[in-house]
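### Sample
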Amino acid sequence: MTDYLVLTVIADDREGIVEQISQTISHHGGNWMESSMARLAGKFAGILLVEVEPAKHADLEQALGELSVHGIKIIVEQSAPSAEKEAEVSCIEIVANDRPGIVGEISALLASHSVSLISLETFCESTPMSAGMMFYAHTYLQLPSGMTGDQLTDILESLSDDLMVEIVDA
C-alpha cells in the first residue's frame, strides 16, 4: 500500500526551491510522481503528486512543513490515485481579444457540455498593431463520450466572433 500526497507550494521566487523540496521528499523516502510549476508575479507556485510508504508519511509531512522557515509554504493533502476514465483527450489552443471574465465564460461553457479540464495555462500579451491585449490559452481537455474535436471547436467558437480554437496534436 502506498500513500499519495498532493502538495501545493507557494514561495517568493528564488533559486533552489525545487531542489529543497525534491531533496526533502527523497530524504524521507518519497517519490516525486508528477508536477506543474510556474513563476507568477515574483512568486513560485506549484502543485505536485508524491507517493510515500505509509510508515514514512508523517515524517515526510513534518519535514515539508519545516521548509516554511526557508519561506516555502506547502499544503499537504492525502489523495488516492484516480482511475482515469477512458475518454478522448484534446489539446487545444485558444486565442481571443482579452476581456474580464473570459476564463469564466470558457470554463462555464465547457462544464455545461461535460468537458473536463485536465490542465490550463493562460497568458495575455499586447498586440503589435493596436493597444489591445490578446488572451492565449493552452489546455488539455477530457471530452465526454461521443464528442469530437470538431464539435468542441464549434462549441468554444460560439462564445464570440473573435475567439479562435486550434486543436494541437498532443
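Helices lie at 17-27, 54-66, 102-112, 149-157. This sample (Glycine cleavage system transcriptional repressor) is used throughout the tutorial notebook.
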